[in-house]
Predict the 3D structure of the following.
Amino acid sequence: MAGFGRLVRTLARISRTRYPAFVVGLPLSRREIPVFIYHDVDTPAFTRDLEFLRRNNYRTLGLEEYLAAREGKTRPARSVLLTFDDARKSFGEIALPLLRQYDARAVLFAPTYWMQAAQAAADDLFMSWSQLLACVESGHVDVQSHAHRHALVATSPQVVDFANPAALARFDIYDWPIRFIDAHDELGKPALGTPVYRAAPLLSAQRRYLESSDATHACREFVADHGGSDFFLRPDWRATLDRLLEEHSRRSPGQFMNAAAFETLVGSEFELCREAFKRHLGYAPHCIAYPWHLGSTSSLHQARRHGFRLAFGVAMDYGAERLRSRLPIPAYGRLKADWLQFLPGEHRASIFGAVRRKVAGFRTVQHLAH
């Protein structure tokens, strides 16, 4: 049943995705400015994209240039907006030098919680505040918000997995929902044996389930006392942890966060992010790229109350272009960067062969709890 459910969610993701006409070989419309999203980058792939843009006379816009064009104040010829999520180290080490080399512009969206030097688990993944400041001062990068925690929250008491060596190796640091342990939130990759509940992005969720700390501790301690990683070599490891969790959850059940507390938590994503920007970069961000996909209408209202003027989603949200007038703040969709080579121009990529890869990709991008 878990496999069938994942298939249904994959098909739903595909059905919600809206792509512009150029990806199937048609020309750009007159005022169309494609927006592309990158995460980690490598030198050959990003160099290839920048070469393609230069060879075909595309301008890379800054954020304000893009907004002016979208609002009809300017009409730049052949232009794109390049955006980068997460502020990974590869941006500073690879993307920024190449942007300088090609005299190109980009927007970098930073999740402020992970910029903190105290987050030891993230030391090898993310940029520091001083590196972000260098990006701002370079003149090639607009640094804006990717929320604060970039978090998933549990939305149901349904357990989909337990933290195990294979899952910890496969899934990214963001793919693990926040754990509510001993009245404190715990982010990042969890300890072995931690129950993983059905989850959704914090800024898209309607509620949050707070698991039982006692049950989580019991599962973690059982794994630690029975071999740690070697425990998961047992064929019955999942059944054993399921029974243990059920037993302890009966004695100490979880509960849903009350609505007011949840609204405060959502609001803190915007408030804490803006405070960190002002403290470290000297300004408050006015643009947010929502993690995973566009947030709930409630979170968009909160974003507006906290000073955000616009939002970006992902390809699934391309259809939001039609709904912008009804949203609390303007929202724009983005395409994954591997579609950039489909832009009109010399050596344009063909759609044939790409569809199968994209369908397969939808299966791999879903996090384990979603």
